[in-house]
Each structure stands twice: as structure tokens, then as C-alpha cells.
Protein 1
Amino acid sequence: MNALTKGLMMKDKAARKIKINILRFDPNIPNDRPRIDMFELEEAPGMTLFIALNDIREHHDASLKFDFVCRAGICGSCSMLINGRPGLACRTLTSTMEPEIMLAPLPLFELIGDLSVYTGNWMRGLNERLETWIHTQEEVDVERLEERMEPELAEEIYELDRCIECGCCVAGCGTIQMREEFVGAVGLNKIARYRLDPRDKRDDDDYYELVGDEDGVFGCMTLLGCEDVCPKELPLQSKIAYLRRKMVEVGLNKKD
Amino acid sequence: MKHDRLHKSVDAYLKLHNSSTPARLDFVQSVTGFILALFIMGHILFEATILISKDAMYAMTRFFEGYYFFGETYPGIISFLAAAIFIILIVHTLAALRKFPSNYRQYSIFRKHSAEFRHNDTTLWLWQVITGFMMFFLASVHLYMMMTNPGDIGPFASADRIVSGWMWPLYLVLLISVVLHTFIGLYRLALKWGWFEGKKPKESRKVMKKIMIAAIVFYIGIGLAALGAYIVIGIEHSDKVGARYHPTEGGQQ
Amino acid sequence: MKVTYTDVLVIGGGLAGLRTATGVKERGHDVILLTLVPPKRSHSAAAQGGMQASLGNSVMGRGDNEDVHFEDTIKGSDWGADQKVARMFVNTAPKAIRELAAWGVPWNRVKKGGRQAIINAEKVTITEEEDAHGLITARDFGGTKKWRTCYTSDGTGHSMLYAVDNKVHEQGIEVRERMEAIALIHENDRCYGAVVRNLMTGELVAYIAKATTIATGGYGRIYSVSTNAVICQGTGQAIALETGVATLGNMEAIQFHPTAIVPVGILTTEGCRGDGGVLRDVDGYRFMPDYEPEKKELASRDVVSRRMTEHMRKGKGVPSRYGDHLWLDITILGRKHIEKNLREVKEICENFLGIDPAEEWIPVRPTQHYSMGGIRTDHRGESQTLKGLYSVGEAACWDLHGFNRLGGNSVSETVVAGMLVSEYISDFCESEESAINVSTSVIEAALKCEQDKLDRLINNKDGEDTYVLRRAMEKIMMEKVGIFRNGKDLKEAVDELEQLIFRSHNIEVTRSKSLAANPALVNAYRTQMMLKVALTVAYGALLRTESRGAHSREDFPERNDKEWLNRTIMRWKDPDMTMPTVSYEDIEVEEMELPPGFRGYGKDMTIHHPKTEERQAMVDTMRLQTEEEGLDRIEVQRTLMPYSELLPEKYQGRNERLDERFDDER
């Protein structure tokens, strides 16, 4: 029998009471002011913030705004500040925290209300700005055998393709707090991803046009908040460093 | 939407190409920082030769004044070195300035972020900003003095400057600032360019951070000890300010 | 009154909706895509395991082709699928995957030479051919003859969704996020768009379009435990149903996935078993070979789910405070494989169970997973009864899956259907019949009707609590319309749901009275919709007195082709009624390329259709004859059941394979 079964079969110990403090504000209500509401719940085994917040909505305050979609750590909808640190609420077990928990919406993004922020809008803007799609003139003939690719390369691309655009790296980035035009780790990782992909015909000069400035890779101050909060554990530190080396190479060889 | 697209394409048409300046600045900031770091690592060790003996420190001074190359001392070499470092420092500062909060609003946003986030590397950056800012002044004073009075280096001359010239408070703060700034900077430099990443960058980073802390402790320790030694000498020598040191028999060559 | 006009309105931003939008845009039509959440957050991202397409590159997939894929799909559907649609699908799937490869999906590739794999709990070495090196590889999935499921690690849906959404960005398609279609606008059996609610501001806007496409996914959330994302609430099916004109098909066909974790119901991919994982009971005993000696853990999903339930009923489940469960053992695959190819699974185990799946077994049990039923369409994706309304993906009953879907066929369906249906929609938009002849008074009335409903919910006094109704519905569905069904429970379920619908007319939104971003209000109107959807499921299940695919009646264990070789069609004629009207659409044996037979699981208890034998004989003779004439497999197929003229011209071509190279080999 493993640890979990023991956990599941265990007789109920006296359940812990947890206090969840939530920073609340509804921009749709005129004169609404930010405030902190406290909700007290009885902790259940295996309780995540997804379960806790839905419990609050069902039993305490039906107007509480937050976003969940997959509730499995896959879609990136539910990022928020959990005790000051950006993270995915759906896969945060309450048992891993002190009984008093503070939740706040992700900073920098447009606030919809309470814990709900509009990350999608921001990410779309970023994708359009960095043109995160395969650039090629080649027409694909879908009836023919597909273009070959080295298996290791495909895996390497997937490694960077795993980004879920949750915005945690943005919220954890000190640079972007001061300079909102900065593309952030999410943007730089995407450039690294397309740069790796032989199907994208852009070269380093093209990428330099996209991230070869202070809003791009040279704006990064290597605070590594991104690396440390990324729920997908993407290799952000090493990919940004790599991109910096490549972009400096372009920049130094460039004739203005 | 169509309008947006059109707008976008006009923007694209008007957009100036990214210039090479940001790349150069980024590169220059790192290179100058690296040179300054190497300099500081040597500098503190050299001045700490006082902990071995006055003779050792004297020999070191003579070495830098070119005695062992030319047979006599040229304090001008020190002036030249100080001027060179000063210039590198100015370049480094100018390049690094673009990363500084450009107004109080930015600074307070960052402070707040750093306080809430409680993320070590973010906090360290704030330390770098603060120490960098202090060094603007402190290092400038120090370097200016070295440029203008290059001969005033030696077991007694330095000690007099520190005690009777009332430089010790400045040097104390400068020492701590410069050591912190140097090693946090080197740590960040390694991460920034991906040095010593190895197969597991996360593990390497942990190791590097440990090295950084060890270096800070070591250098502040040795620096404080040396400063202490000069202070002791300076106090003992306070009645003979201006008198130069003469090595003991066999203390040289 | 706010009205927006466009050529094509797509409701739903998952893979199916996005691919439809790109296809329509490519043909030069304006398109607006509405979505509840940013498209990259859609439930398509949760499809971990893979996409079926008969490329036949891997040595374990060699010899695969459309014919084998077709046969697997039809058998998997328990002969409930539309065979022509299935043919269209299997012929387009390889094209879809190759298109996606060009759009940037980093499909895992064949690596030449030997590699270790686990098959039937034993280590074997698979040696890949040199000529396949670098082509898209595939893994094994349940219910398939060949290894056909192409994948990117276990983030297939994620990678596909991102690639297609990026294509949408490239094309500059207008995507309006956090918008919910709450009613369709229609007149004289013609759909003209939808009344749409902005979930951030609460504003209602009418979107008027030549063609309206519903791509809102399934309705799993009518069950209390489901692998589905929380937004898979069946509102797309509901708004179609509420027109009183459009119909829903086979709503009772609900798939239960064998391996969702206990208690939260998050999916662990079929790839776990495909890659060699096994199921164990309370004693650690691997029980599946006893029930299904041939396919074992890799029998069709419906079969495995039933066998697991049977086994637990025999007292072999592992008791827990959340009820019984079984074990999924992937420790035998080794840490390296798990950390590379089953990484999402590992993360899920760590984050939600606190266990390391390379060391410990995963607690699983069958859980609601997929909705085979949906908005009934013809092969062109258009509603059979409401012109101008299209539906694609899980939202639709196109009908590719019949009564049970094969793993890996759903993400495949989303893109294939998007490719094909976008062409039909474009054809429609280019025809004269697409003219928008709707009067402003109709639009205005539709808007007002919806506004009134919302106002009523907010202003109601002493009404019902939404959550009470919602939880009651979920419980009924879970307990009485589950894996094994029987007449008594289903009758109770139908009666109780009808009661709930009656009560739902009197819902009161409590505690929060805002008409803007207000989760309580959203929950209220969606619950009203979900109840209707739930009732169509329960009612369809009650009436269908046979067992077919995932619909399993304990009181009618045999598949009854004689009486039930048909689709259940539901319509809700009058919004004030509390029951749908039901009719049946026959599935014609005479037209089948693959007449009904034995699926090969358990004991054959089929009551055959009177025409099956005759059709089978005819198919056999034709096959023999044409093969003697020296026709190739594609020409033989053509004589049995011609379908290719149903496809848009650009997708009618053959698919090149290593074993079937085109003549002008590059």
C-alpha cells in the first residue's frame, strides 16, 4: 500500500480550518474600492485552491470572480498571486501552505474582477508582435510524405512548445514591472522555439528585428523570477542566455 | 479589424530597423563589468598583503609602480591605471544606467514587487542597484585621489590616508558595496550569458550561488581585516603623518 | 440594439472552431470567432495522448492505411457511425496531420534502429527502418489494429491547439474572447447568427452571419465527476436544442475513460496503457487478460471501463473514502520513459496525488470523458433541419464515432472536420441561398427575449438556488445514467430531471445581482441549459433498449441491430415544455461497406439486422470480383461504397506512404 492509499483510507483527523484572504475589486461597479475579504473553510483531504475557491463561491459568495478551465495544470487560466508568488491555483494543494492564505490577482494584466484577469488579450498581443507562427513561402502538399525532422530536434522544439501562456513569468518579472513594453520570458522563449524550428525560414537578422532591443532580449536583467515560477519548468534561464548570445552576435556584426 | 491591419502595415513600414546599439550596450556593460570585477578581486588581495607584512605590501606597491621592470618607481603608472579603471567604470555606469529605475515610480513599483515576491535573485538586483548607486560617488572619490596622488600608496602612506585623512568610513562602505556588487554581478553575468550551465542549469545555478556567497564572505572578511590592519598602523603612525615607509633589512629583493 | 455582421460566425475556440475559421478565411470570407476563454485555454489542450492518422511510418504501423483505420473506427463505434463520414475522415486525417506538421506541431519522429518498449508487460526491442527515419511516428492506443496514434510526448492537444491558434493569428482572424452565445437567431428554419453575451460587461450583442458554426465541445459537466474542463457544459448543444428546429443526435452515447485519477477525475492518458502500463486490482493482480485475453488493457475504452466496473463490483476494487478504485501501474515503463513521454501524467500525479508514478501505482477509475452525441449534422456539418447552422468537433454528431469513440480519433476529428466543413461553409457562403434575409424585428425580439430572461433571473424573489439544482442533476447523471444503465434507474432519472427542469424556471440569482461579470448569473442560465441537455441524455438512454458501444443496458445486454440500428434524434419543440420529442434515423445496412458484425469483445450477443447477411454476402462477392479484376484497394473500396465525391475537391486525393509511394517519387 502506498502513501496515498494510506492518506485516502486514513480516518478523518480533526480537519484544519483554513483562512483564505482574497483581494477583491470589481471595476464594473462604480465606486468600488479594493478590499480584502476573508473566508474560513474546513480543509478537505486533497483540497486544491480550485476546490477551495469553488467552495467559497458555492457556499459563501456566489459573486466571487476567478478563472478555471482545465483544473489540471494544463490550460494556464488560473494563475494568481498565491501568498505573493505567481502560480497555478488549480494545482496548489492547500495542505502545502500555512492555514492563512493570501490570494491576489496577477498584476500587470487587465483586471476583470477579483482574481480574474485578462491574460488572453495580452498574450495575443505578444504573439502578434513577435509573429509566433511558422514563416515560410513553401506550399505544403498534404498528400505527400511529410518533411523529415530529426527525432531529437522535434523533442527539443516540444520542450519549448510546452509554454501554456499562463503569465506567471510575466508576473514574476521585475523588469516588466518597471517597463511594460518588455516581452518577458514567455516572448523570448517563443522566439527561441521558432529559431530552433527549421520549418520557420526566418533568420537571426529577422529575429533581431523582433527582440534585438531593450524591449526584447537586451531588456532582460536576469532576475530569473520567470525561471523560478514557471509551472512548466521551462528552461527559460538557459534559453534567454542562448538567445542573448545569438542576438549580440547579430548586433555586433551589424552595420547601422 | 481591416483598419487595424492596415494600421499595422503602415507601422511596419515606418518602423526603423532595430539598431545595433542595444546589443553593443549590453555587450559593453558585461565586458566592462567583468574587467572591473577582475580588477577588484585583484585589488583587494593586493592591498591585503598588509596582513602578511608591511614589507610585502611595500613590495607590491613597488611592483605596480614598475620598480621590478625599470629599476625605479613611476607612480605615473598608478595614475594611468586609475584613469583607465575610472574610464571603464564610467562606461560601465553609463551602460548600466539604462537598467536603473528611471524615476521614483519605477523604483517604488520594483520595491513593492520585490517585497511581495520574496524572490532572492530579484532582491539581489535591488542590492546591486543600491550598491552601484553608492559607488558612483565613493569609487569616484577614491579613484580621483589615486589619479592625482599616485605616490601616496604604501604601508604608511595608505594607513595615514585611511586614519589621519579620515578615509576609513568611506573605505568601509566602499568595501562592502564593491564586494557585493562585484560578486552578485559576476553571478548574474554567468547566468545572463549561460556560462558554466552544464547539463543541468538549475543545479549549476545553485552551485554558483553558493560560490557567490562564499566569495562575498571571503572578500569582505579579508577586506575588513586589511582595513583593520591599516587602521592600527595609521593610529600608531598618526604622529608621523607623511613619513614614508622604509623596508626592513632583506625586506626587498 | 447592437448588431455585428459577418460572413461566418464560429462559436467556440477549440481546435474544431479554430480550424473551421482558418479554412473559411483562406477561402476569402470574413469570420468572427467567439470564445468563452482565450482559444489556447480550450479543452483541446487537455488531449494528451495523440491523434490518429494512418501514416504507417513506424514499423509497428507499417501496412496501415485508410482501410484499416476505417475498420477500427466502425468496429469501435459498434456500427453506430456514419460509414461515409468515417471514410471521409480516414482519408483526410493523414492530410490533416501533414498540414499541422507544416504549421509547426513538433510531432515525435521515427528514429532508425532499435529501441526498448513494453508490450504486454514484457520488454521487447522494436527496430525501426532506415527509410522511416525522421517521419512522424505513432504509439499504440486502444481498439486499433496498428500503432496509429501520432503524438508530441503527452501534450499533443496542446501543441496542435497552439499551432492552429497561431495560424489564426497569422491570418488576422478576429477572435472575441469571453463571449458567450446564449441563443441562436433563426427564422423560417434558417439560422442567422446568435445573441451573444459579453462575460466581462454583461452586454448583449446580436451577431448576424450567413453561416453559424457551433464548435463548443462536449457536455461532460452534466456529470459530477468528469475529465472535461469546467467549461464543457453543453451550452452549444443547448442553444441548438432551444431553437426547436435543430436536432441533437445520440445524446445518450457517453464515453467513460478507464483511467481518470481518484478523486478529482483528471485524465491520465490512454498513452499510459498504449506504452505498456497495466491495470491492477486490490491484490495487485493484473485482471484485464482474464476478461479480454486478446486486447487486454488495450481493448476499446467502453470495454475496459465496463470490465473495470465489473471487477470492482466483484469486490476487487481498492476501498477509499471516495469509493472504490483500481490501480494503473506504469512503474514498469521506467523513469526515463515516464519523464520524457508521459510528463503531464507525472506532473498530474505529483501535483494532485503527491505520488511519483515511476515508483507508485496511480489510483484510477472510469470517469465520464467524451460526448459522442451532439448537434446532428449531415456529412457537410450542417444541421439537417436548420439551414445555415453548422457544427464541428465534439459538439456535433457528424457522426464519426457512433456509440463509442476510439482514443486518438477525437483531436483528429476536430481538425479534419474543421478542414472539410470550412469548405462546405465557404461553398454555402458563395451560393445565393446564403443571403441574409432576416428582419431587424426578429433580431430585436431575440435580444429582448434573452435580456428578459436574464432580468428575470436577477429579479426573481424566493426562487430556487442554482447550486441545489445543479448538484442534484450531477448526482442523478452520475448514479443513474452511468457506465451500466437499467430501465428502473433511467426512468427515475428522467422523472427527476424533468422535475428539476420545472423547478429551474424559478431560479433566483442570489447574493450577487450584477448583470455584468457575475458568475452567479452565468451559473444560473447555464444550469437551465444543462438540465435540458441532461434530460436528452437520460431520456435517450431510457428509450434505447439495447447495449451498443458505450451505452450499456444491464436489462438489455445484447446489441439489437434488428430494432436499434439507428440514431436517436431529439428536438425541443417548445421552450415551455419539460420533455423533448424523439424520433429515430435509420442507419442503412444496404449502404454499408462494413456490415454489422461482432466487435470481438466478450460473448457475441448481437441480434442481427435482417439485411445484414445479405449485405455481407454482397460485399464479399464484390470484393472478390473486383480483386480478381486486379483493382487496387482504393478502387475496390470505391465499388463497395463510393464516397469521395462527397469530399471537397481539394481533399479527394490519395495519401502517400512509405509502402505506397507516388510514382514520381522525389
Note: Chain B touches chain C through two residues (CB under 8 Å).
Protein 2
Amino acid sequence: MDFCIRHRVPVFKQVRLLSVVAVAFLLGACLDIPDTPEPKNTVSHVTVYAVQKGDNDSASLKIHPESSATLKATIYPKGLEDDLDFAWYRDSLLGTGATFRIPAYAEEDSIPNRIVVKDGEGNSVSVDFNVTVNSPPAFTEDFSPMQGDTLYGSTRTSFTFCWKAYDSEDATLDYILELDSTHYHVGALEKIQQSGLQPGAHIFRVIVKDSESDTDTMPLVKFYVIDTLEAKK
Amino acid sequence: MKKRLLGKNTPFILVAVLTIALSLCGCSDSDQYLYDDEDSVVLQIHAEMATSYEIDSVRVREDTVSSKDTLVFIGEISPSRQAHYREYYWTLDGKDFSNDMNFRKPVVKPGYHEICFVVMDYYGDSLRDTLQLWVTNPPIIEPQGFIPAVGSQGLSPKEGISFAWHGYDPDSISKVYYRLEIREPKGLAYTYDLHRELYTSSNPILDTLIETPYFTYWDNPKSYHRLENLKFYTWEVRAVNEFGLESDSLIQGAFFTKGNRNEGGIQAFIRFSNESLYDRYYSSYNGRIRLDILDSLSNPVTERELGLDSNQTVVSPLKPGRYKLIASLPKLTDFNPDTVDVVVLPREIAIADTLRLSDTIPPSSRILTPEGLLFDADTLDFGDTLRFYFEDHGGDLRQDVFWNGQDLRGFDYRNTVYNSDHTADTVFITLPKSYKSWTHQLLTINAYDYSGNLNSKTYVIKPSLKMPEPETSSSSTNSSSSTGGNDE
């Protein structure tokens, strides 16, 4: 009976009713103010960098062996460090905490190459890295001309310039010779002959760079040229 | 009313509409839209690139170019009727490059690139043809700031001679090689603006390809070509990358090798009064340059002969002291010898002032009779053949002939006979009969020697035709004739 009654309700009236209900639902949905979102405590990435002798280059993982260094882990987003656990590994666990101290002349096995960051819910992020231990090149005292030397010759005379640097890792080094205001790219040469020096005072020094772009600069050498050959004419 | 219709008649209406629709479908020619293998067309595409649209431009599918180059990309679709494809486009490394079939465009980013020609058909299928392109810039080599500096003295092959320069790949994508050559030059070449540069025609003493922008030459006693003591050498470096692109600039240097404690040398340069002389002396009949070296007391120390294709030499070893250099051309007596003084220092090669051999004597010209007699004259009879004799002792001669100021270059009626010792020319000029005239004519001959000294002579050719006889057929003419007769 009820069915018959409902069946007699005009179609357009049913449609209008349904429309009203639908609009009401839609408005209701619009009025449903969302809850305040929970802060997202997901660590998106971890960065490791080395700090040594105040060198705070956040992109560098290169250290010199002769002094201690500290590895630092930074996470993004920031501010979650206190809620996280840091573990430094090289095959086995070497240490914990957001920083790791590498002593001077540390063995390779004692330098971590992986960090694992964990939260209280068991989530973890692991990052592999490689710390480069590089000794910078260094000049010896074996160079010529020496400070205050006097060279005899004309502008056509080829004067010899030599120097020596050592580096425990690199067999060949790259040198730039600075003679007065001119820079000469001399590659791996450690002895050259150059002419064109006018009588008077001159300066020379050499800059050395190894394969890790570590450099050393020789002290500035001042020397003198006297044109005795011209006087003989 | 509507409600009733919808309610009761709707099924009937729907059935009717469906029936009509099915009938119409039966009448349509829908079979033509079915796939028929025989009617299908196989699309083919082809992509190429070239440096220009010219027909003779080489078209390639892979190439290495400079970022400065502009390339032409050419797409072809076969069959070409657009009914068979919907669209086409080009991509560069997967990104839009062009929507034209053919177009000109540079690819400036250094590195490897894939340029793809894509054609889509109406079924949504795509055809692709890919070109491969390496873009690179030529390596850079700094033409300054190299070692050893130009003119360096005292470099010892036994102690090692180090060369260093600055070269690199501007894109840092390709390996750079350096070609180092060491030669012993024969002389200097002068460009049109008189800037001199050392040249050599000899084989290189060293010709090597190295990967580093530095090199040390060590003397090797087993080597056939070696650097010797107290000599002058040139060296040259070019950079080339692994794609074969060569640097725009190069390094050119020169150095002297070391001598013993009590030895030195002299480098002498010889120039002529006309630099073109040097270029044109390609044959040996003009002799050689003689270089005499005298000591401070004018005693001969040594002498040397140089070919005319060489204008630079090093004389060594010489004891330190004062010397006098005399350069002469014994077979070209018009050239005045030149003398310079020079001081030789131990272990060095002294660079002497340039010796200049100058010829200021112009060629002489005379008239030659058929009997072989020479005489001077300014006026000549018109003859079938006129003979002129030119003499000079400063190299080969050339003559320019003018008839009444008109250049007779390439004139067929001229013949030149050279003396065996190349000191004189006999020029025969056969004048055509059409040159005959009842007035005086001018024949000018300009004779030049190798130094450009000029002898210009103009001869007066006497009238070779008689004045035309006046006509006497009419009275009026007679009257004129009588007037003319009065003139005579």
C-alpha cells in the first residue's frame, strides 16, 4: 500500500526532493571544517659533512689526516634531531649521536661510511658516504732562485727556475708558476727555463695543486737580474 | 498530456526510432571504413642534416659540429601527400625542436644530442628517424704566457728543454691533445703588411702528439733528428680535441740552443731591396747569397753560401769576440753588398743587424738591328719587327709595352728571348699592318728588374703611310685641291 502511495507521487516532485537533499549534503560537506593536520615527522633526507680546523664547508667530505675532524649529520626538515637516534657505521657500529669525531691520523677502518637515523617508531633512514682523507701538497725548501738571489744575463738569457713539492697520495702534481705578474701553467714540470727578464727586481712563486684540489703556495721569492752581458759589449 | 504520452507511448516511439536507425545503417557504405590491406599505404620517413640547402651540400645522419655552426635539418615523408599522415615534428633530446619539415637552426649546447623526426599517422601510430649530433667547441690554446719565451738563449738539449703552455677544452667535455713540432727554419717570410714570421720548409726535428700542455725534450743520441748546440729552432703547438676540432690559435716560438763555455754564434738575417725578390727567386740560376765572416782585424774567419730561398742563417761555433759580416750576391752585381758588425758572447748566439742587399740600378735598353748591332735612338721607322735589347744584373726582367698609351698586355705580336745567363732579354715586337698610319705613333716600353727598378722609354714611330691624294673628279674638288696645294 505504501508502495502504491509513493508511486503516485509525481516524478518531478521526487526529483526536486532528491535535489534538495543533494544540495544539503554538499553544503554540509562544505561546512565540514577539517581537523588541524598532524605535523609530518618524516625525515626527507640526511646530509653528512666534515668540519676540520674551522672549515665549515657543508658540501665537503674531505679531511686532512694530520688533525682531528668532526662529521656532522644534518636532517631535513630541521628541528627533529632531539627525537632521532644517529648511528655511525663502517661494517660495525662506530658511534652514536649527530656528530662523530675522527681523531688525527685515524685508521681508515675507524672512519664511518654510513649513517642510520631512527625515530621512536622504528622508522629509519640510511645514507652512505665516503670521507676522503687527503694530505695537501707541500713545498720543500728546495727551490731556485732563492730569496734575494742575483742572476746575471740579458733579456735573452734563459734563467732556470726549479721547485719541489711533495704529496703523500699524488705522484704528479699540477703547478702554476707566477713570474712577476704572469702566470704560467707548467703542469707537472718542476724545472723550467725562461727568458725575457729585464734588469732589476723580480718576484716568483709557485702554486701547487693535487688531484683533490688541495693546494699549497710557495713563499714569494724576490730576486734580481743584472745585465752584465750587455755591459761586456 | 505530455505525461501521459511519455508514460504510455514511449516504448513504441523508441522501437520506431531504433528500426529507422537500423535501416539507415543498412543503407550506409560502412565497408569502406574497414581495414583493407590492399588499400593501405606504407609511410616511410627519412631525416638528414646538412650545413646548407645547396644541392651539393653533404647530407649526413651523424656529425660533429661547432656550436657556432648552423645546421639545416631535412625531413622527408613518402608518400608525401598529407592525406597519409596527420602531423610531424622534430625533437631535440626529447624536447620540442621544430614543427617545420625542413628548417635551419643551430644546436649550441655542447655534448651529444639526438634529433628525432617524428611523423604521426591518423591511426595514432608514429614513425621516428633519429640523427646523432656531437656539438663541441674547438679547444683553446693561449697564444701568450708560454715557456720558453720567444728568442730564449742557452737552452740545453742534454739538460732538457721544457715547453709549457695553457690549453683547455672550454666545454670540459672532450679530451684535448697537443701537437708539438720543432723545426730548424730556413728563413723569414714576409706577409703583405711586412710582419715577418719564421718559416721553414724542412722536415720537423720533432713532431709529437701529447695529452699534456707541457713537454720536456731530452737529447737522445740514438735519434736521427736531434737538436744541436748553438742552433736556432722554432717550435709550434696546436690544440685539437678528440672530435678533431683544432684550436683557432696556435703558439709559435723560437729559441737558441746552448754552446760550450768558449763558443758562441751569429744569427744573420738578409733582406733584399724588394721583398718580392725573395718570393720570386725560385730557381738557382741567379746564384746564391754569400756571407763572409771576418774577425776584428778583417781576417776571414769563415764563409757561407745560402740559397736564395733562405734569408736567415746561424753561423756557429765562433769564439767570443767582434766580427764583421758581409753579405753579397756574386752573380747579381747590381746588388750592393752590405756589412754589419756584431759581438759574439760566450754560449750565446748574437743576433746581427739585418743585412740589406739593395739594387738601385734600372735595366738598360737599346735597339737591336737585324744584323745584331745595338744602338740608341728615339725615333724608329715602322717595321715588320722591332727589336729591343734589355740588360740588367739584378735578376730577371719583365717588360710592359704600350702603343699610343694602350697596354699591349697579352699582345700576340711580341716575343721575348732570354739570354742564357739571364742578364738580358731581347724583345721582338711585330706590329700589324693595321697599325700603319700617316701620323707619328708612340711605342712605350717599361722594363722592370726584380727589385722594381724601372726603365721607361718611349719611341716615336715615323708615319708609315703616305698622306691620301686629294680627289680631282669635280670642279668644287678641284677648287679645294688647289687650296690644298697652296697649303703644301
Note: Residues 7 and 127 of chain A are 69 Å apart (CA to CA).
